[in-house]
Amino acid sequence: MADFIEEFLKDYGRDVSKQASSNLGIKQDVILQMIPVVAPMILAGLKKQMAQHGGSDQKARADRVNHILNKYGKASVLSDMDKELAMSAKEKKPDPRLGGLLGESGVQAAYMMSNRFNIDKGMAMKLIVMLAPMILGALTNKRDKGGVGTKGIASLIDQDGDDQIIDDVAGMLFKSLDSSRSSSGGGILGSLLSEVMQPRCQKCGSTIESKMKYCPECGSRL
User: Fold this and answer.
1) Are 10 and 190 in contact (CB under 8 A)?
2) What is the rounded distance in angstroms from the CA atom of residue 180 to the CA atom of residue 110?
3) What residues pair up with 200 in beta bridges, in sequence order?
4) Per residue in 149-207, pLDDT tens?
5) In 3D, which of 36, 33, 40, 38 has the Cα closest to residue 157?
C-alpha cells in the first residue's frame, strides 16, 4: 500500500469511516476497506492531469496539481469532516467521475464496489464523492504543513499514481473480505479493521468479549 494511503488511514481513516458510516448507513469496516480503493484512483487521476497538462515539464506538472489542490483540496475539511461528509451525503446526483479527475474509471469503480460489498450503486457513487475532498485535503495539508511543498506532492503522485489503476482496483475488490480480516495483524488497515470490528458495550462504548453477559465497565446487561 502506498505510503500516502497508509498515512491517510492512520491519521484520518478511523474518523472518516465512522462519519461516513453514520451518514450512509454502511458498516464502518466496509468503508475502511473502500478507502484504499478510492484513494489510489484519486492519485491516478491527478497523475493523468499532470501528464495531460504538463507533459514531461516538471514545473508544469507541479503547477497543474497545485492548481487542482488549490481549487478542490481544502485542508479545512479535515478539521470539520463531520459537517463536510454530512453535506456530501445529501448529494442527490453524485458524480463518481469527479468532473474530469476520474472520468469513466470512477463509474466503473462504483459499479465494482457495489457488487463486491453488496451496497447500492448510488451509495458507492456517493462514497467516492464523499472521500475525494478528504483525500485532496490531506494532500494539500501534506503540501502546506508537512514540509513537502508543491514539487514534493507532484513527486509523490508520480510515484504512487498508477496508470492502470482500474485493473488494480478490480484486483483489490475481488479479494476475499475474509482474507482482509484474517490478516488484521499486519498493517494500519488491518489494525483499524480489528478495532472497529471489536464488540462494544452499547451504553458506555467499552470493548467487550462476545461471551460476556455484563459490561465490566458500566455493569449494564449486554
Assistant:
1) no
2) 20
3) 207
4) 988 999 888 886 665 555 555 555 555 344 444 444 456 556 655 665 566 667 666 66
5) 40
The residue assigned the cell 501528464 is 51
CA-closest candidate to residue 21, choices 119, 101, 109, 144: 119
Average pLDDT over residues 95-107: 90
Report which residue type is found at 205: G
The grid coordinates listed for 205 are 462504548
User: DSSP states of the chain as a string?
Assistant: --HHHHHHIIIIIHHHHHHHHHHH---HHHHHHHHHHHHHHHHHHHHHHHHHHHTT-HHHHHHHHHHHHHHH--GGGGTTHHHHHHHHHT-SS--TTTTTTSTHHHHHHHHHHHHHHT--HHHHHHHHHHHHHHHHHHHHHHHHHSS-HHHHHHHHHHHH--TTHHHHHHHHHTS-HHHHHHTTTSHHHHHHHHHHHS-B-TTT--B--TT-SB-TTT--B-
Could you tell me the pTM of the whole model?
0.78
